[in-house]
Amino acid sequence: MAEIRGSWDELFAAVPTMLSGLLDEGDVGGAVAVFVDGRPVVDAWGGFADAGRTAPWERDTIVNVYSVTKTMTALCALVLIDRGELDPDAPVARYWPEFAAAGKAGVLVRHVLSHTAGLPDWEGPVEELYDWTTATARLAGQAPQWEPGTAAGYHSLTQGFLVGEVVRRITGLSVGEFFAAEVAGPLGADFHIGLGGEDDRRVALTVPPPGRDEDYAAGARDGDASRAGVAVLRVRDGNSLAWRRAQIPAASGFGNARSVALVQSLLACGGTVGGARVLSPQGCARAREEQFDGVDRILGMPSRYGLGYGLFGSALGWGGWGGALVWVDPDERMAIAYVTNQMREPATDNRAVELVMAAQDGIKGLRG
């Protein structure tokens, strides 16, 4: 079996064993973490950080988690809501006046957090994603595709700019700066929205699915390549230096499983982890307030959305292109994160779900 490094409670040994099995099946590298009561019961990693399998995946290896980044951006908004600086029932234009153009005066903050704002598509070139002013100006001038609040359609690339510009208008900080100062910093979490050059050496670049190359493009989960006028995001874009340096708060976050589980443990533990209080219990509960339950127009599947998170029964979280996932179970005070540099075809990729199930078996033993 592939060697797995790190540490884990024996009640959760099935989790690292499963990670080893994924590497045996051909995955290049990955990491998994399970936090209970804000502390790690699994912190495991293995495999390689590069497609050539020459550089081992290390404890501090980080990777692009794509849309798992949305949960980090959502936390920034939840913090501001908690402080009374952001009203989820207010129009976005209260904070960002230019956004009222093209029939968007009625778009509420809760609409952009729940994929119901009617702006699901990035219609510019991929290169414009790298310039904040250009990207937000484009979205401010765009008309909604449906009456905001009446339907949901996954805002794969646009949601981060919509939420992030509101954060910037309120605080004067970019979403990456705010996240670093108010969330990651107090927790000591190694997660970044906008990556500096000093961290490049630690990045495990994304490896396309077997038989694919770096022109492999995202499907509906992260930018549907099949709809006319919609930007096509390719693996080579996500692996580019420009992507790493940019703040694309829906999709360009870099971290490891440990950091993802640590940050999202806030929602599992009532807003306080390791002595750092980032949210109130009421602020955490807001994330699970249902905003939409029905068929997502873009994903074409039944979806439930809270404020910035997908809802799955009593749990919440979200996944990213390529296989990453964060799963938070407040009832068990548990957060589970899986990250990998190895993409698989989405239709047959059950890795993260199987790891969650293994962790759930462990919590039964722990609580039993």
Q: What tags apply to this protein structure?
A:
single chain, 11 helices, 368 residues, 17% strand, 4-stranded mixed beta sheet, alpha+beta, 7-stranded antiparallel beta sheet
Task: Characterise this structure.
The chain is α+β, with helices and mostly antiparallel strands and 368 residues long. Helix content is 30%, strand content 17%. The chain is built from eleven helices and 15 strands. The chain has helices at residues 14-24, 69-82, 109-113, 132-140, 158-171, 175-187, 235-238, 241-245, 257-268, 281-286, 351-367; strands spanning 4-8, 29-36, 39-47, 62-64, 192-193, 203-204, 253-255, 272-273, 276-277, 292-295, 302-305, 310-312, 315-319, 325-329, 334-340. Strands 1-3-2-15-14-13-12 form a seven-stranded antiparallel β-sheet. It has a four-stranded mixed β-sheet with strand order 5-7-4-6. The protein has a two-stranded antiparallel sheet with strand order 8-9. α1 runs antiparallel to α11, α2 (69-82) packs parallel to α5 and α2 (69-82) packs across α6 (175-187).
